[in-house]
Amino acid sequence: MLCVAFPALCPSMINAQIHNPNPEQFISADAAIEHAQRKLLHTLEELGFNSSLHPGHTDRQSGRWDTGYLKRTEWTSGFFSGSLWYMYKLTGDIVWRDYAVMWTDDLESASGITYDHDTGFRIFTSYGNAYNLTEGRNYYRVLLNAAETLSQRFNPRIGAIKSWDWIGHFPVIIDNLMNLEILFWTAEQTGNRKFYNVALTHAETSLKHHLRADGSTYHVVDFDDFGNINWKDTRQGYNSQSVWARGQAWAIYGFTMIYRFTGEQRFLEAAVSASNYFINNLPPDYIPIYDFMEPYGSVRTKDTSAAAIAASGLFELYTFTNNMRYFNTAVRILNSLSTEEYSTLNDEISSILKKSTLHRGHGNIGTSYADYYYLEAIIRYLELNDTVFPTLAGIPVLFLDQNYPNPFNNSTKIHYSIDEPGMVEISVYDMSGRKITTILNQNLSSGNYQVSFDATGLSSGVYFYVLRTTGNVITRKMVYLK
Ligand code: GLY
Description:
Bound molecules: glycine
CATH architecture of the largest domain: Alpha/alpha barrel
Largest sheet: 4 strands, antiparallel
Oligomer: single chain
Strand order of the largest sheet: 9-8-11-12
Radius of gyration: 23 Å
Structural class: alpha+beta
Distance between the termini: 29 Å
Strand content: 5-15%
CATH topology of the largest domain: Glycosyltransferase
């Protein structure tokens, strides 16, 4: 189940073989991981090991992380934490896990940010990877909270999530596709179709209005209250008809991910179409100019973030299409990103990659998202090559999660984690303290578990569920609504 949401991290889900006797090779994977480790450590030192600071992009002059963009409220706040989790995945070194835990824990409050659509970026890159790699129930709870927060920005009449509050009337940006992943994932985890329907409807709206016939994409589409188009534009790119490279990369990654969850052919076709446009317009070194339409002789900075996002998306698209063009392009992008031209191998710049562009006129910087998707693309490449990753050390904790859904109608799920082997009992009590039932009473080894509770036959109201182990008791409240 988890692996459907995180195929990059689940070798068993990428059953695709590389359908070519001579696929492109990522020649410097080990060196790239070495370099990334050095830069992540450098960043930890630069931040003074203060886990309330979350790098967004570097300052063009100093090369250090821009101190004006370190807040957990920035759209970028999850990427550094996500990169730490990826480094843990790549190396199995618990030092990376421990830092990842610190930087992730600091982002809990960001799961309640309601003023933009970026809850998905902030929480799925941090908590999503945390949960996938540790199955810690505390991470699960924050993920569900973030999905609920994000879904509150959905307008059923328009059929979309409102991306921003600061321009237009109801702006929806192509990047928003990425934030659907946490909704699809939550629907899959909880069985709650609401999240699936919100994500699917938004994906349909975006498919209809962002994707052009030639496979390129608009950045922003603004709607009126009835779902009619006010205008279409490209805010971070060259002009309203141009093709912002990172937006195009979000489309490749986003439509591919949506196909992963929905299995609907139209989304796969959209991903293919967006990818073909991207690949057909790449320069010889495979790293795009920040906007494919930016004229010669003008501001033509490169965007390694677009390249890294696209590479990661193309690896997944390859698994659905078996088309070597996607695999080979992704590898060529990785090879190019790993050279001195784009990697900070010989630079005093704090990021792993350099030469990203924030928006027109603000290029030649490092970004935490270029680094994150670069590491993800390396993981996906290694997975496709059947690499066995180092064993990850689990974190045994005692934890009783809030039941989900809550309030519930008849049936709900209770997740819990056990830190030490022994007898475990979970019982349900009513408000007067009368035991209603014992759901579970058995000897368990340490690990993560889930039980279902069916309240059919009980009256609506508040109930308590109690987890008992040798020496510990944890109680939580749940609400049954018929
Ligand atoms: N999602 C914001 C950006 O890509 O710049």
